[in-house]
Amino acid sequence: MVAEKNNINIKDIARLAGVSVTTVSHTLSGNRYVKEETKNKILKIIKQHSYEPNIIARSLIKKRSGLVGIITTALNNEFYSEIIASIEESLNPQDYIIIVNSSNHDPVKELNVFRKSNSLFIDGIFLVGSSIKYDYVEKYNYRNIPVVLVNRGCQGKSYPTVTVNYLKAMKEIVSYLAETGHENIGYLGWAKDTESVSVEKFNGYIKGLKINGLKKDDNIVFLKDDIMRNSFEEAYIFLRQSLSGKPAEKLKMSALVCQTDHIAVGAIKALNELNLGVPEDISVTGFGNTSVGRFSVPALTTVSVPKKEIGKLAAQTFLKLCGGKQGMHEFVLLDCPVIVRKSTRIN
After folding, report:
1. What pLDDT does 3 receive?
2. Strand, coil or helix: 6
3. What's the predicted TM-score (pTM) here?
């Protein structure tokens, strides 16, 4: 007797179709050739009985669950969302299901999620913009599953990394400002631990000043102690507070380099409220080439980060690891062009 609807198993499908269990299995997996007539017959029976394969059982047999974890610092950040969407798009043809978890810049939560995720039956983990220290990745990767580091610096380590040459990109945008006549170039952002992208960007700003013969003026360097989670508002408030009591006519700053596009938009609002026009009085640059920068008023001069390419290369790296190259070492460092728009002017 055939099992009730939704309880039918692969043996029942084979018996109803008059074929072997192996043929049904090949039809479901697509790994082997099955005659079109036979395949259609099997698929018709599967549809009639609403058959769904036992994912857990199949995973145990294949030693592959088809589940991939992504841990990111900020899911509501357009920058990271584009990278994650690209990873998902690249892995979909391989039938992977993506599980995403955001820590909202909480390193303790991030580490706990990594530890728990590693104990689950998943095939690998992407750390996208994560702040988890490399040593912890090594320590808590209990099952030695593939881990791909995305948008962070860990050069010289055993886990593959796909990221951007942030130091070079920041040097280039500072050089662009210097070449267009700006000498008093400020900076707005935050600086955290030594492995973070924020530090690479700030170091790029410092090097950009040096190679152009300019000096860092601490009076126009605005570094917040902690991360700006709500970049628009926090950058706006922080810059307003930092400039409080400083008359606009005495502010010796012709350009302001911002750590992200979102920070730049918050900065423009603060400057406008202080009766400083952008770019008439102060040129402002962003970083990321996000939609908020493209549609801000004025549109932001920025660094265009290839977010889709980052996600695609990260997914390709993961698939190579799954192909047996567990010891593969890669450090993909992408360059980023400067995009000149209306928020900067020749000084």
Report:
1. 42
2. coil
3. 0.80
